[in-house]
Amino acid sequence: MPSATAPSSSDKSKVHKLQIKGSAKLVTEFFEYGINTILFQRGVYPPEDFSAVKKYGLTIMTTIDDQVKAYIKKIMSQLSKWMSRSKISKLVVVITSKETGEHVERWQFDVNHTPTSTSSKSTSGSGEKENSDPVPPNSAAAAAEKTDAEIQQDIQSLFRQITASVTFLPVLDGNCTFNVLVYADADSEVPLEWGDSDAKEVKNAEKVMLRSFSTNSHRIDTVVSYRLAE
């Protein structure tokens, strides 16, 4: 009679690490396209600075400005390393008025790790760092594994909602710029060119929770904060 041998704990560990790595790549890719989508939809840069690509079954606009592309790529390169080591708790995109210096919009993507969660400090893509609250335990850890198709469908739904957000978000007046904050564990190795920053909160903000999506290793919750037009 043929016999079967259960996988060793080290084999299981390798499978888990591969799963984490695959999920980290998927989430990092989502952030890259998400930042581009926010910049386009919110008019931070003119439409002619973007080109269309097909992703997640959608047409997504991505920047063709060399400086902006380089900035985002630098952030994603470091983010990918931290994500694969479960060092990230959130990524934030802040839109700021060039005229007044006020933060007018803040997109926060909370990263919950399954089955364990981590506490963190923040480091930003332009080089920011700050304390943040511990990530709450993810109750979905024991849920059935999701298929790639299900994950893609959830991401597609979130992108549709980001695009539709222009229906309730105030029109951004004047010229704006953006900044990216990445919250990483306090013991994370931080590149020399990155620096510390405050949370860049929007004063007297309205907040709207958007859709979430999850892989088999991460769950991303989304909230946008914005200043009401005066």
UniProtKB/TrEMBL annotation:
Q: Which residues cross the membrane?
A: none
Q: Which GO terms describe its cellular component?
A: cytoplasm; kinetochore; mitotic checkpoint complex; nucleoplasm
- According to the entry, every stretch annotated as the HORMA domain falls at 21-224
Q: What is its main location?
A: nucleus
Q: Where is this region: Disordered?
A: 106-147
Kindly state which keywords UniProt assigns to this record, in alphabetical order: Cell cycle, Cell division, Mitosis, Nucleus
- Localization per Swiss-Prot or TrEMBL: Nucleus
A biological process (GO) of this protein is: mitotic spindle assembly checkpoint signaling
Recorded hits in PANTHER family, A to Z, give:
MITOTIC SPINDLE ASSEMBLY CHECKPOINT PROTEIN MAD2, MITOTIC SPINDLE ASSEMBLY CHECKPOINT PROTEIN MAD2A
Instruction: Give the UniProt family note.
Output: Belongs to the MAD2 family.
Q: What is the protein's given name?
A: Mitotic spindle checkpoint component mad2
